[in-house]
Amino acid sequence: MELGSSILENISVAGDAAHISDKAFISLVQAACQGVLLEEHRNAVAENPAFKDTDKAILKEAYSGLVTLILEAAKHDSSEQNISSVLEDCKFTTDRISSFAKEFLPQKPHVQLLLGKISSSFPHIVDVDWRLDYYIKNNHLEKVNSAVYLISLKTEVPGSNDIQEVQFSCSLEQLQDLVGKLKDATKCMEKLTQG
Amino acid sequence: MLLVFEDSHKEHLSFLVGLEPEVLREFCKISMNFIRKGTNPKVFQGAAQKLGVSAESVQHGVEGLMYLLTESSKMMLNEIDFQDSIMTLGFDDDTRTTLLEVYLSQRKDIRDILNEVSMDLPHYHNLEWRFDVQLSSRSLRHQVSPSILLQLQTQEDGEKKTQMLQTDPVNLIHLTSVLEEALQEMKSGYCRRIVRNIK
Lengths: 195, 199
Hints:
The structure holds two protein chains of two kinds.
Chain A: H1 5-15, H2 22-37, H3 56-75, H4 80-89, H5 94-104, H6 108-117, E1 124-135, E2 146-156, E3 163-171, H7 172-194
Antiparallel strand pairs in A: 1-2, 2-3
Helix pairs in contact in A: 1-3, 2-3, 2-5, 3-6, 4-5
Chain B: H1 7-14, H2 21-37, H3 42-51, H4 55-75, H5 79-87, H6 93-117, E1 123-134, E2 145-156, E3 159-167, H7 169-185, H8 189-197
Antiparallel strand pairs in B: 1-2, 2-3
Helix pairs in contact in B: 1-4, 2-4, 2-6, 3-4, 4-6, 5-6
């Protein structure tokens, strides 16, 4: 994990007892973790009564430093040791290093989960509905008499909250072909995970 | 099931009565071409000159024949019903046999053509898949997320459409098993009973 000098400065501000009291520090780390994880806690530092005695400009610097550290440490999956050495360089006391680790490390997997979601991807299939019809006749043709499946793939698209649908129809033979190919894929995947 | 002819249709078909078998076959061939590719009035003129009749009666004969063949194919008439249907039109045995032969040999083609003009839903054409493992992204390094990329080809009115989709192992297994169940459903007693009873 490599951080720019201005970021390191901001982190140092958070660790400096002259700017941020011990009590306010723990609240700040908690607020930074919550701010990363939950949208409604984002930028909710200014109104937080825990920081009423802290200078607003200082608070802003410290908060941005901690948020960047949290995101970068999660992004690179940094170990406690890694994080400690960064914080040591920023002149954190051992107490503050361990309280940062205590607050942040349990949240790291959650932050990583969110970071993992940020990516472009094709519509992701999450479910499927099907319906079986028996096609009897139409205005041009009597006695068609064949099975028709209507398949609706439910997909999630990154950046959208709605479930989208991909719909198409299949004859019995076409569905056999489709299922055959999906089974191939499943088998291949199972082989890979076993080997 | 029998075909019911309207008077005008009977009149048009009456032109075919008494034609030589070869000539009738030629007419059948022309009718099939027209069913496949659309009509071509020039042909009527030529045939009318050869036979020494009016172009209009040739046109009516061919159109009557086209209607007879498409309607019978549409209804999927069996051999006996087809013969019974044309019984009253005054054809001799040879003509009836020729018509039956033509009908039976062309029925599948005509039904395919009728199927093409029928309403079409976007339907499955092909599926390609590949297995990937995502290792890293701009926002998160050190990942191991398996994903299955699917390229789905569907077809509607002869036009193919390709869509890229993806899924994860759990959903792939789910998708496969749900669609397999769907496939099995067609073999269930209930569905087989319905299929048996709709004839």
